[in-house]
Amino acid sequence: MTATGEPVASEAVVEELARRFRSGDHDAAFALFHPEIRLEQPASLPHGGWHEGHDGIKAMSATFAEYWDRTIDEPRITGCGATALQVTRQTWTARTTGRSATVDVVELFELDDGLITEVRVFQQDTHLLLGTLDAGDGASAQW
């Protein structure tokens, strides 16, 4: 709710989240997450599965950072009630091989009382992303 008692638009919250992450202010970004937030990544990825609470998301982010660096283009965000959808184009570069892949990523956000309670992440091609971890010499990355 706003100071006037109006509901906070889901689109505005996700736009602010993206702005805070892009500026590098992760503490301020986490302030938009409900303490019991749940975030799902595709199970096929090293950082995949459900992650719960701020500590769970921080642990997932640390696991991601072991494998990839990432750049994210400007998001396209649409909101409808307590749900928002964000689409970004992301380039993931494997830390071990230097190989990169660019995919679209769709994130589905659920909000309650102005805080993000759930995020479900859908990368366009997880097989392509996992291929960046392969050194190209026939040996696959293990996780």
Summarize the structure.
The protein has 143 residues and is an alpha+beta fold.
Silhouette: globular
Estimate the helix proportion, in percent: 25-40%
The main β sheet shows up as: 7 strands, mixed
**Spatial separation of the terminal alpha carbons:** 42 Å
Query: How many alpha or pi helices?
Result: 4
Query: pLDDT under 50 segments (min length 5)?
Result: 1-6, 138-143
> What count of structural domains?
1
CATH topology: Nuclear Transport Factor 2, Chain: A
Shape-level CATH architecture: Roll
Secondary-structure element string: HHEEHEEEEEH
Helix/sheet category? alpha+beta
Question: In angstroms, what is the radius of gyration?
Answer: 16 Å
CATH class (first level) name = Alpha Beta
Which percent range describes the beta-strand content?
35-45%
The residue-averaged pLDDT reads 91
The overall strand count is: 7
Overview of the molecule:
By secondary structure, the chain is of the alpha+beta class. The protein has one domain: Nuclear Transport Factor 2, Chain: A. 28% of the residues lie in helices and 40% in strands. It contains four helices and seven strands. Strands 1, 2, 3, 4, 5, 6 and 7 form a seven-stranded mixed sheet that branches. The N and C termini lie far apart (42 Å). The N terminus and C terminus are likely disordered.
